Each structure stands twice: as C-alpha cells, then as structure tokens.
C-alpha cells in the first residue's frame, strides 16, 4: 500500500511539472480599430455634418408664451428682440392653449433652439413653446 501511495505521489508531481513547462495559452490578438473603420474615421454629430432638423411644413408656425400677463409678454418680447429673434403678438387665444403668446417669424425660428428656450424657461416661469398651424392665427399686423 505504501508503494502505491508513493507511485501516485510521484505521478502527481510529474504531472504538475509537465503542465508548468507547457507554453501558456496565447492571448488572441485583436486588429486595430482603424482597420475596421474604412472610410468612416470618426463619429460625427448631426450638427457637425451640416444636417438640418427635419423641415417643417410651410403652414406651421412656432409660438412661444403661455404667460399670464402682458408685462411678462412684453419682457419676453424684449428679450427675444435682444437675441435678434423677431416676434409678433398673437391676438386672442390660441386653440387649446392658455395665456398670451408670441408668434416667431419664419426667418428667426432657426435662432430659437433648445438651449435658448431652456434659458428663457428658467427666466420666465410658465414659458411654453408650440408648433401649430399658421392658419387662423391673428397677429398685430
């Protein structure tokens, strides 16, 4: 029995040494990412490529407002004029909207992006903006 134990011990030590001397597993090499990209070298934002937001139809208008008194509406109009954004006051109520509103001219709509709207919303409490059909909007013209 003693000899069997010594034989198994020698076999285990030999097996251990044999595995230690074997070459370690090679790590698979990965090709550089530049080989996969081809003509597309980097990620580009839509604003960087010159792509425009989806164009709205000609009969749609952007309105901002929703404020409750005329003083706030005048202050909003002055702020927009200081940003070179031309607006006209909407006479009467907009369908489905409370408060007083300003219609942004078509030439100035591109200047009124999300960052400007968020800045204005922090200064004017109930400021909202909507895209509605221009038909039926009465302005001060």
Layout of strands and helices, then pairs:
Blueprint: H1 2-21, H2 33-37, H3 46-49, E1 60-67, H4 70-82, E2 87-91, E3 100-104, H5 114-123, E4 128-133, E5 138-139
Antiparallel strand pairs: 1-3, 1-4, 2-3, 2-5
How would you portray this structure in words?
The protein is an alpha+beta fold. It has a domain at 53-139: Alpha-Beta Plaits (2-Layer Sandwich). It is built from five helices and five strands; from the N terminus they run H-H-H-E-H-E-E-H-E-E. Strands 4-1-3-2-5 form a five-stranded antiparallel sheet, with helices on one face.
* Strand tally: 5
Please describe the biggest sheet, giving its number of strands, its sense, and whether it closes into a barrel. Answer: 5 strands, antiparallel
| N-C termini distance | 112 Å
Helix share bin? 25-40%
Shape assignment: rod-shaped
Alpha carbon gyration radius: 35 Å
How many helices? The count is 5
Structural class: alpha+beta
| CATH architecture call of the domain at 53-139 | 2-Layer Sandwich
- CATH topology group of the domain at 53-139: Alpha-Beta Plaits
Along the chain, the helix and strand elements come as HHHEHEEHEE
| Poorly predicted regions | none
């Amino acid at each position: 029995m003693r000899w069997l134990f010594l034989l198994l011990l020698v076999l285990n030590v030999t097996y251990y040494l044999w595995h230690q001397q074997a070459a370690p597993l090679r790590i698979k090499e990965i090709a550089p990412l530049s080989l996969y990209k081809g003509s597309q070298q980097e990620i580009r934002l839509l604003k960087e490529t010159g792509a425009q937001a989806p164009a709205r139809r000609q009969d749609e208008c952007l309105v901002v407002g929703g404020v409750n008194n005329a003083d706030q509406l005048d202050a909003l109009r002055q702020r927009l004029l200081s940003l070179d954004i031309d607006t006209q006051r909407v006479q009467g109520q907009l369908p489905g909207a409370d408060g007083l509103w300003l219609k942004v001219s078509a030439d100035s709509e591109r200047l009124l992006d999300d960052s400007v709207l968020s800045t204005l919303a922090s200064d004017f409490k109930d400021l909202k903006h909507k895209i509605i059909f221009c038909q039926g909007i009465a302005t001060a013209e």
